[in-house]
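Sorry to interrupt, but I need a hand with the structure work. Could you write out one complete protein record for me, on any chain you like? Could you add the entry underneath, on a fresh line?
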Amino acid sequence: MPNKNYLILSLAIILLIGSYALFSAGYESEVDRSPKETEKEVESSNGKVEREIKEEQNEVEDEKIDEKEAERDEKEEEPEEEHEETEEDSPVESTVSLVESNPRNIVDCHYKVENVASPKGVSFRPNEDEFWATSLMNKNYGLAVFNSDTGERLRDIQLPGGGGVEIIFNQDGSKAYVSQMETGRVFEVDANSKEITNTYDTGSSWTKVLTLKDNLIYASNWSGNDISIIDINSGLQRRIPSTTTPRGIYLEDNFLYIAGFANGVIERKNLETGEAEELISTGGAMRDLVGTEKYIYASDMANATVYRVNKDTGEVGKFVETENNPNTLRVAEREEVLVVSNRGINHESGNYNIPGPEWGSLLFFNLESGELLDVVIGGNQPTGLDISEEKSLLVYSNFLDNNLVVCEFPDSQKWEDSPSEMTTDYKEKIKK
């Protein structure tokens, strides 16, 4: 009997020690989690960071936004974690594939470049066979350079602090300027060496669109509700107030035109006197501005409309209706064509990270009459857009597909033979 009692007591002690060990292990695994692991769990429970494009991002929402939406925009566009600064790596491999021509189109698309993470802005480099693309949510690089003839990826450029948003070049193409929302900075990049040569602080927050004139950078600050004006020689900057959530900007002589996303405002500001005039307030979501000799064109995402401003009189009128969520605009004055990039309908859940029920599209309009000339069916959320009349090329990005598409931009004679057959039934083809 003593042996039996001893056996029972021994088993009880073993069970007690085992239970304690299991408890300790469980507790240790809980308290020893790194902050990043805990952060990832919180992020997972709340849903992954939603992407930009609300524009940016995703300023692209088709509903009127308020302060809460602006904060959500900030969350959507923020990378999951800041990348470590490292030695520059070789370019990320991209796959280039041919795009089958559609005989019903006037615009003939040639090739597609895959594996370009969250491509936001694209721009052809003047006087060179290159186009550059920003990567909004990539934590390893914020900018990529491609050969415009072949699509070959030439270089990746790391932007400290996050991804890139919009990109512009100086007149001769020797310098590129890239905005970064997370840090409110603008990077100057030597276009030949592909090295960052200067970093400018806008003094504001969530910097979006840039324009350059007489050694001055004008930068719209989405959350700052102002415009930064930076001297690229001295680095000195000043800020001027603007309409709420400024996005697109266009400079004409001493007048700065500003697209206010929150309320569908087009504001004209006299840079000499500081006086501001609200030309229109649609209650929608103005996003991008482009101009010609006579007019300024503005995309209203919420109202699926492009408005036109008469530069001489300031009069604003509805120019054309578009597809859902028109965002980026470009003009080819020589061919008298306006190109409108449309994201398409948002996913029913409201999650911008999920493709919606229709394909995006590119619409081509006559600059004067507004006649629809051609339609190119895009991928999921076309966003970045640029035209090189010099090279007769067009490039656009499909933000959620992580790719870029390069097309031939037709000459004036082809446009005279328009409209294309695609304009008659494209609405059925954009449905998935």
